[in-house]
Amino acid sequence: MNALVLRAKRVAVIAAAHADEVDRQARFPAEAVAALKAERLLGIQIPMQFGGESAGLSQIAEVCFTLSQACSAAAMVFAMHQIKVASLVSHGLDSDWHCSLMEQVAREQLLFASATTEGGIGGDLRNSLCAVETVGDVFHFSKDATVISYGAHADVILATGRRHPDAASSDQVLVALMRGQMSLERTSTWDTLGMRGTCSDGFKLEARDVPVAQILPKPFAEIAAQSMLASSHLLWSSVWFGIASYALDRARAYVQGEARRRPGQVPPGALRLAEAANELQAMKGTVVAGLQLFERAQGDADELGSIGFAVMLNNVKTTISAKSVDIVQRALGIVGLSGYKNGTPFSLGRPLRDVMSAPLMINNDRILSNTANLLLVQKGGGQLLSA
Amino acid sequence: MVLSQDVRETLKSVAALSETIDGIGDDDNLFDKGLDSFGSVQLMLALEERYDIEFPDNLLNRRSFSTIRIIGETVNKLTLSAAA
Fold it and tell me: Taking the domain A3-111, which CATH number applies?
């Protein structure tokens, strides 16, 4: 086991100890995030020259997978943080201000959150109503952000907005706002079926007199296409795969217990376990292949921006999100009432409620519609080892 | 030979750009001007139909459709190779 996984496992022990309480109280997984900072995992993606570890997406996905088996909310907070850091690392290298922010992230283990969802626009990432209003060297920014996951706990928020008040709704930029530069007024509370600890409340975000240097120099269209969609789909999928793996581990332990109690007989759940393990392996192949294709395409803007690549990433998201729900349900079927009941070694209520968010986080129907559109022009005939 | 004017005519059929096309320069990035992935697919389909060409997968990326000039060059290359 490598050192990174050991660090992640130490955090997972702490996350697991508080996971039920985080879920019950719908509170931020503060202990897990403190442990992530103590293990210096929030800054692993920052390039070494800025004090980080230059971790690639696969390494980060491994941490997501490890954490999600302990506390889905803590894993999702870590994933969402790293998705924002990926935007900074991939698109901030040409800007002195963003390079110094990277140093600060590595040094102080700052937590990043995202403000892309907006009243009147919903989850359509690539359109904004709010706009950056530049006055000389500074800008003002105001956003009715209907969701900012763990916004009240973030050190930095990356927010989308139109480039200027006259820009088209899709002509967007990404701005980095530090905690002391903005006010957040809570407009809604995250009281949900699962993933309760992500505290994805709504906020009215206001920032004034922010230096224009804090606007990322690349258009958001490019940031979304080249780093954000890929890192979101792949890291979220790693979290969901981790939840499914945890559930199947519970089912396996249950079936093994049955087998030990009745030597010479194969327990009835064993066949269902075999079926589900088969599915889980296919899921793992999908996630791992996606990560490998993404890492191989690094630096190749044409490949990352190609239709084939977008279709591949969309398929990873829709497949893993749907199958992870299915796997947890199958696991519940295997362990039966001891999984349905809270407080047993086989309880699966929390993972089931958490994983049910997967097909809804960027709704699978929205992604399938996007894929359907892309397939109108994709020609096919690719290679076995290409996207 | 496909001229930028021809490309502009086709771009008018793309909802995201139909209103603004006259104010867009040949080298302006269309994705910054409102073209999204849905619009870019509609644009590709319109170009394939109009010029009786097919964009191969290796040209189905953001760069091939990023500006009016690049679209014109790409379509010219494909019509020439179709004629050859």
Answer: 1.10.540.10
Per-residue pLDDT of chain A (387 residues; tens, 9 = 90+): 689 999 999 999 999 999 999 999 999 999 999 999 999 999 999 999 999 999 999 999 999 999 999 999 999 999 999 999 999 999 999 999 999 999 999 999 999 999 999 998 877 888 999 999 999 999 999 999 999 999 999 999 999 999 999 998 888 999 999 999 999 999 999 999 999 999 999 999 999 999 999 999 999 988 998 889 999 999 999 999 999 999 999 999 999 999 999 999 999 999 999 999 999 999 999 999 999 999 999 888 888 888 899 999 999 999 999 999 999 999 999 999 999 999 999 999 999 999 999 999 999 999 999 999 999 988 876 778 777
Mark yes or no for CB contact B60/A378 under 8 Å.
Answer: yes
Tokens of B53: 């060409």
B→A interface, C-beta within 8 Å: 16, 20, 29, 31-38, 41, 44-45, 48, 54-58, 60-63
| CA of A377 vs chain B CAs: smallest distance (Å) | 7
Closest CA to A41 of A90, A87, A105: A105
Contacts of B36 in chain A (CB under 8 A): 126, 170
Closest-CA residue of A relative to B48 is A377
A114-214 folds as Butyryl-CoA Dehydrogenase, subunit A; domain 2 (2.40.110)
| B68 Cα to chain A: minimum distance (Å) | 17
| Residues of B in Cβ contact (< 8 Å) with A381 | 57
Alpha-carbon distance of A76 to A84, in angstroms, equals 12
Comparing CA positions, the residue from A376, A346, A163 lying closest to residue A254 is A346
Q: Which helix (H) or strand (E) holds A321?
A: helix A307-335
User: Cβ distance B73 to A208 under 8 Å?
Assistant: no
- Beta-carbon count within 10 A of A209 CB: 11
CATH of domain A220-374: 1.20.140.10
